[in-house]
From TrEMBL:
A molecular function GO annotation: acyltransferase activity
GO cellular component: membrane
Primary localization: membrane
Family: Belongs to the 1-acyl-sn-glycerol-3-phosphate acyltransferase family.
Record domain Phospholipid/glycerol acyltransferase: where: 105-217
One biological process term in Gene Ontology: lipid metabolic process
Keyword Ribonucleoprotein part of the UniProt annotation: no
Membrane-spanning segments: 27-53
UniProt subcellular location: Membrane
PANTHER family: LYSOPHOSPHATIDIC ACID:OLEOYL-COA ACYLTRANSFERASE 1, PHOSPHOLIPID ACYLTRANSFERASE
Protein name per Swiss-Prot or TrEMBL: Phospholipid/glycerol acyltransferase domain-containing protein
Alphabetically ordered keywords of this record: Acyltransferase, Lipid metabolism, Membrane, Transferase, Transmembrane, Transmembrane helix
């Protein structure tokens, strides 16, 4: 039997937790090593200067964004293909305000790599959050908290004394910011959309929620397995460039037609907070949008499956 076959989706055969590898020739290794060691000091200097020093200064958003762009330029994350779903190619600025994420709205983003956070920060300067299957509330995160979360161990429940808030309250507290939610709560390799945690249900019915899909080419910069900082940096820094493909769908609202309220657990998993039938429809709509934008599929594998996968993966040697 194929290894890890129990961590493939039964319907589609997709394995969303296995790290993506880009085949490289041995001949090219020297080039990769050279590029890596040329860039690493520059990358670390800029990233740490920003993280430890500039980030804490009350700099205007435009300066913060410029710093983040320079962090992304060093590894060559410069080619960004951005499109609004159903809109002809154009720039963000030409679109009506209600078509793109704006202050007071929420971004429901795919979660695959630390680059998700860097990119979203460079464009929207948002407030980041972490979601958990067991609760509707979210944990507000700093930029670096969000980067760390993309390589952090899976958590089905928040740690004791985690600062949790309702998404609606967070939107109200930051009327001049966009709020980013990663509804899948833990990174995948980008090949599928996992069942959502219930955090988006905390959004008020009049708050636009924008599904935003980020995909990378090569996809080896995705970090489905926690703690692999070195391989992330190696993949990111040892080749000339990484492309990002960004798709933004039309906003979805947290509204239901009311009515039936049979509570159900997604996938009958007791680690997921109960969600009513109508509420599940709202989550499904957003998950469907992410799968459509990412040209992939929704799968039934939960974060419990991911935990079991990580144990199997780490125990393999
Ligand atoms: C979001 O919508 C669901 C129904 O679709 C509702 O149960 C829930 O209370 C709403 N959340 C807020 C904060 O209004």
């Amino acid at each position: 039997m194929e290894k890890y076959s129990q961590f493939r989706d039964r319907g589609s055969g997709i394995a969303p937790f296995i790290p993506v590898k880009t085949p490289r020739s041995r001949l090219a290794l020297l080039t990769h090593l050279t590029i890596f060691f040329l860039r690493l000091p520059m990358f670390l200097t800029i990233a740490l200067t920003y993280a430890l020093f500039l980030h804490h200064l009350p700099l205007p958003a435009v300066v913060r964004k410029a710093c983040l762009w320079s962090i992304m330029l060093v590894p060559g994350i410069w080619w960004v293909d951005l499109q609004l779903d159903g809109v002809r190619r154009g720039t963000l600025a030409e679109q009506p305000r209600n078509r793109v994420p704006h202050p007071g709205s929420v971004i429901a983003a795919t979660f695959t790599s630390p680059i998700d956070t860097l990119y979203l920060a460079a464009i929207f300067d948002p407030v980041f959050t972490r979601s958990y299957p067991s609760t509707r509330q979210v944990e507000p995160l700093s930029l670096f908290g969000a980067v760390a979360a993309s390589l952090a161990p899976v958590r089905l429940r928040p740690a004791p004394r985690t600062n949790l808030v309702d998404l609606g309250a967070l939107v109200a507290r930051h009327p001049d910011r966009v709020i980013v939610v990663f509804p899948e709560a833990s990174p995948t390799n980008g090949k599928a959309v996992l069942p959502f945690t219930p955090s988006l249900l905390g959004a008020a019915p009049d708050t636009p929620i924008f599904p935003v899909s980020l995909r990378y080419t090569p996809a080896d910069v995705t970090t489905p397995v926690p703690g692999r900082w070195f391989s992330f940096l190696w993949d990111l820094l040892s080749r000339p460039s990484t492309c990002v493909r960004v798709r933004i769908a039309e906003s979805v609202y947290n509204t239901s037609r009311g009515g039936t309220d049979a509570a159900n657990h997604p996938q009958d998993d007791a680690d997921y907070a109960p969600v009513s039938h109508d509420e599940q429809l709202v989550l499904d709509k957003i998950a469907d949008a992410l799968a459509r934008l990412g040209r992939n599929k929704r799968v039934g594998l939960t974060l419990k499956d991911k935990t079991a996968f990580i144990d199997a993966w780490n125990g393999r040697k």
